[in-house]
Amino acid sequence: MGRLFIEFVDEDVGAKYICRCGCDIASERCLLWEGYMGSATPAFLFRTAVNLEPSGPKRQEVLSTGRYTLSDVRCRTCCTKLGWKYLAAESAAEKYKENAVLLQQGALQRINNLAVRPVASRPGAAPHAGAAPQLST
Ligand SMILES: [Zn+2]
């Protein structure tokens, strides 16, 4: 179908996630939550991601947190199914998930070499407080 338009994750970040084919998918800054997809597949919830395309028709599904309208998504480059996008959430408490994508951890690779300093691993820590990053090389 025409040319492939590939987007790149902003490099001004500590880490990013890429597809197994090497295509950029999401920045760590967009990671909202880490948990499970269904009951068994470890997954990441990203506020935004790039290089994803809808795969198949949208569908209604009842998950443990309520009813959603979902659309499966796949990598634009290699067509691997990576997870789904939340198109709509019925529950007001889950509205923050709308337009976010839930992707299988096993389908992604984390790339750390963009880090300008160690990323705070404590949840809830404010990583942007303090002085400018010090490059050690
Ligand atoms: Zn891919």
UniProtKB/TrEMBL annotation:
Pfam families: Yippee-Mis18 (PF03226). InterPro entries: Yippee, Yippee/Mis18/Cereblon, Yippee_fam. Residues 14-112 form the Yippee domain. It comes from the Eukaryota. GO terms for molecular function: metal ion binding. The keyword Cytoplasm does not apply. PROSITE patterns: YIPPEE (PS51792). Keywords: Metal-binding, Zinc. Belongs to the yippee family. This is Protein yippee-like. It comes from Chlorella variabilis (Green alga).
